[in-house]
Design goal:
single chain; 5 helices; globular; seven-stranded parallel β-sheet; alpha/beta
Length: about 200
């Protein structure tokens, strides 16, 4: 963007003196602005601060969670946080070993925990655009408008390669806030974005 603006400004600088020398007037309204601002909420996959979330997480949701059959300590902490959130908000949780089973559950939101299986969620979210996906502690390589990711220090990497091992730490500290923030982000129309906790 910076290079394009610079080229346009240089071109204008070269043309304007010629116009002035020939006595022609220049209409300022047709000149490009030197500063172009894009609302980050309009750019899919962009990262927003948690303060961008304006609504409350809704009650009564059925959450289909994709989690390993034998979760590691931090994955279990995140799963516990999801189940606690559902219990506090009149919701229900079903845990599934894979995305296909979660899709068959007809849940309000499919929740992925950590980088394990994130490649399958990436493919499933692109093929099921009418289904909402929430990913906790990692980001998708190719996010679509039906996915929200919530990341935090120690669990904020974007999965680029299917076999790539990514860090997943801090769920015991951040997961409870992450599930609530992520579901509230859907209610705030922030679909397609990454929400960063600090």
């Amino acid at each position: 963007m910076r290079h394009r603006t610079l080229v346009v400004l240089l071109a204008a600088a070269l043309v304007l003196p010629g116009c002035a020398a020939s006595g022609q007037s220049v209409d300022d309204s047709v000149l490009p602005s030197a500063v172009e601002t894009i609302d980050p909420q309009l750019v899919p996959g962009s990262t927003l601060e948690a303060s961008a979330v304006s609504a409350d997480a809704p009650d009564g949701l059925h959450l289909a969670v994709v989690a390993p059959a034998q979760p590691e300590e931090q994955e279990q902490a995140a799963l516990d946080a999801v189940e606690h959130f559902a219990a506090q908000h009149d919701g229900t949780v079903t845990v599934h070993p894979n995305v296909d089973a979660a899709l068959a559950d007809d849940a309000d939101v499919i929740v992925g925990i950590g980088p394990t299986g994130v490649g399958a969620i990436d493919l499933a979210s692109a093929a099921n655009l009418d289904t909402s996906f929430l990913v906790l502690g990692t980001q998708l390589a190719e996010p679509t408008g039906n996915v929200i990711a919530v990341v935090w220090p120690g669990a904020d990497q974007r999965a680029v390669f299917a076999e790539e091992e990514l860090p997943f730490a801090g769920a015991d500290v951040y997961a409870a806030r992450a599930i609530e923030t992520g579901l509230a982000a859907f209610a705030s129309d922030l679909d397609g974005h990454v929400i960063a906790l600090d």
